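#onboarding

Welcome to the new folks! Below is a worked example of what a typical request in this channel looks like: someone posts a single protein sequence, and someone else replies with the predicted structure as tokens. Don't worry about understanding the tokens yet, we'll cover that in week two.

Example request:
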Amino acid sequence: MLYNSVSTVGLTRRMQNATTNLQLELLRNNDELASGKHFDVAQTLGASTGRDIALRNLYDETDQYLKNAALLQGRTTTMDSALTNILSAGQDALAAASVGLGQPSPTGTSLQVRARGVLDQVIGMLNASSGNGYLFGGVEVKTVPMRSVQGDNSGLPSPMQIVKDAMSATLGGASAPATAADTAAVVATMNNLFAVRDPSQPLPPPLTLGFEGGMYMGAPAMQPGGAATPRLSAKPDRSTEIPYGIQANDAAMRDLMQGLYMLASIDTSALPEDAYQPYMKAAVGKLSAGLDGVRSATAQLGIQRAQLDEIVKGHNAQLKILNDQISALESVDPAESSVRLNQLEAQIEATASATARIAQMRLTNYL
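Example response:
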């Protein structure tokens, strides 16, 4: 006779394993309820996993573009504020200088002081920084673009002294022009001092220092040989590049500072009339041309900022769409998960009860 026997130890172990598996599944279900995502996304999605990965990669890329655009927004906002302040200060100086264009004015001394104050303001604005770099030095973002009017610890003559030395050398030792010819010579020297040139070429006499290297310390306008130096630009999305690199050595800034240095370096009220009129005309002309250039740069920057705002809006909209698509793939239905949780709890209770009953089985119960 054959006997079919059942081991209570074997049954107990099987029930314990079943309970353990149910408990693990319960923990996973609880994690899904807490996070709102599938515990094992790849296993759940199966063949759709590749699409989910592609969506996440696109989301990360768009998010990085958005962060770059936000950083650029901060930089361009600071640049716009600096340019607006430069325009305001320069216009005050231009208005004061334009009053006495016809003949020497007793306000020449106060104009000199005023021009010096405006120079300090303009240079302060051109040394503005945002984040981890200076704004108006081109690609040399770690270098302070403009030297202070009164100089620094570099060992170089101060910018004001560079201007005065150039005038004195032109005039044979005199500190200011006395004739129309003197003025013409001084203006020519000032034009050379503030001109854009190939850094590999020597300065025209009597200059020993130029605008770049003497007053401006950022990225030069030209590389040795005459090629243009690359300018700052940003790529806020895949297909758009914004060249936002306004520099303190742009033509507008050179003209503006040439006019201000000409007014701040001498007392124009002490000039003879023959020297005064052409000198003031040249200084005011440079100042006016510089302000016109700054206005154009400010307007262009405004266009770029508007373009950047639209790009940021597009990124935010795309991130929302991508997030919805990713959530549709990865998210757990809370109602379905709750039902599953209740089922698991009931199964665990039933398994635990059965395990307890098996553990209490004895041979004597059947004798």
